[in-house]
Amino acid sequence: MAIERSAAKRPNWSSGFAFIMATLGCAVGLGNIWRFPYVMGRNGGAVFLLMYILLTVFICSIPLLCELLLGKQMRRGVIRSYEKINQKFSIFGWLCFITSIFIPCFYFVVGGWTINYIFIYLFNQMPTDQAAYFAEFAARPCLPLLFGIAFLILCAAFPFRGVNKGIEKANNIIMPIFIVMLILLAAVGLFLPNSIEGLKFMFAPDFSKFNFTTILTALGQALFTLSVGMGCLVTYGSYLKKDNDIIKSSGLLILGNTIIAVLAGIMIFPAVFSFNLEPSAGAGLVFITLPKVFSAIPFGNVFGLMFFILLFFAALTSGISLLEVSIAAILEKFKISRKMATVIMSSIILVFMIPAALSFGPLSGYKIFNMTFFDAMDFTASNILLPLNTIILCFVVGWVLKPKMELLTNNEKFYNVFNFLLKFIVPPVLILLMLFGLGIV
Ligand code: PFF
Hints:
The chain is an all-alpha fold. 77% of the residues lie in helices and 0% in strands. α1 (16-27) packs across α14, α9 crosses α12 (246-274) and α14 (300-333) packs across α15. It binds 4-fluoro-L-phenylalanine.
């Protein structure tokens, strides 16, 4: 059994393409397909998009670079990377580790829902009352849990096989197919009658909806969708070869992730407006509103099937990266095999996933601070742990590690701007985001 103990035995991405596909797979997920279009539409459309791009480039790119830098330099998972800087920083790695358990608990439940919808469209079982069907399905005691477990097993199968044979292969195959399917479905959306209204909703700036909250929402969305703040990019960065240009890779990642999110909006909103439906939030938009569209258009079951396969692919590649964080971390921390680490982490996540999957039915009455278990996991991870981990990352890399210029760039001006943003601008902005997420601001 191959035990990845030492840095010498550490796997490497076999090409720059493999690294880009893996990081894109990690970043592109449920956050892009349903969350981005909806928050964009709700927060002023084009103004939000502009804000999102500016904040991504000037704020989020900094911790993103820090994560890749930390991984590339330390060549370890997130716990050992922090420990290599200072043994006392072990706790920061463990915080990322805990986050990597919290997020899959609710994320994998939604991943399981996508499998259910794939089956519905595959066997032509589209319900007539979409809202009632969704509520009834999510509330069932067994089926959502079983699909959640199936999703967990599918995600775990790739890290189980290893970085090159599993994670890299999966992303190299899935991501190009995903992109082609997305472009195709976006094109279909554009050809529907009245699709222009959907584009207006997304792209026409509505300054009346623009305020301080918009900025913070755009920032939170950017961090979540770029998968910053949990050590995913530390872990994936640790498999980089020394000569990889992380600035170029980060640029491609940011560009690709943004284009995919905008394409997702183009796929969804023209269709929603074409049928005079409500462009409402979250789970409802994807699992209730869109099925209404699919039941109304010609070949709707084919497009429905394609859409849910697309959503499943997006969730799967992110799910793989979520698992890899904790697997890589315990594998080297406790010197166990990759296979053993995968089984241990999947089992731990399974235990926490059960109450999350039952949050819409049998456990809907059990509340933590007035939230179901599912919502509590989501809230704690997105509003507390992700921003907290990112703030810590910036302090540690900026003030303690102080990365050498040659590791990042040979352009002194760029390096100085990076350092300035990292030390003085990004942390206060992130602290503000966190206070906002907690409802304190
Ligand atoms: N970026 C993923 C999405 O947009 O769905 C979610 C995610 C994956 C968040 C990995 C954080 C993470 F570490």
